[in-house]
Amino acid sequence: MVFVYDYHPGAETLLNKHFSTSELNGYADPFLSDPSAPRPYSHTKNTILRQQHNSMLPESVIWGYIIQLTAALRVIHAG
Predict the structure, then answer these.
(1) pTM of the model
(2) What residue spans of the chain are helical by DSSP H?
(3) 4-36 confidence digits (pLDDT tens)
(4) What start and end residues bound the annotated signal peptide (predicted)?
């Protein structure tokens, strides 16, 4: 599957959003996006949040992509 898209300044690709190089190396901390940010409340809480996240996309994000793709298909086939 190939996606062709226009350039939009400040936009983030799906590859960068969901498949960062740290995830490909086997470790990703989704709750520490800013290294200069203060440390979390506790190591235990951060571990619990990581286990709940479990490297899966939230259902709302998946549905958002499905809606956008079906809307694009509708536009393509309308003409």
Answers:
(1) 0.45
(2) 14-18, 21-24, 43-53, 59-78
(3) 667 778 877 777 777 655 544 455 555 556 555
(4) none
Cα 60 to chain centroid distance, Å, stands at: 11
Answer yes or no: are the C-beta atoms of 22 and 28 closer than 8 Å: yes
| CB under 8 A, 24+ apart: contacts of 51-54 | none
Give residue for tokens 């003409």.
79
For the chain, which residues make up each domain, given as ranges?
14-78
Long-range contacts of 10-18, Cβ-Cβ distance < 8 Å, separation of 24 or more: 18/57
Please, are residues 57 and 17 in contact by the beta-carbon 8 Å criterion?
Answer: no
Which residue carries 């298909």 as its tokens? 73
pLDDT of residue 74: 94
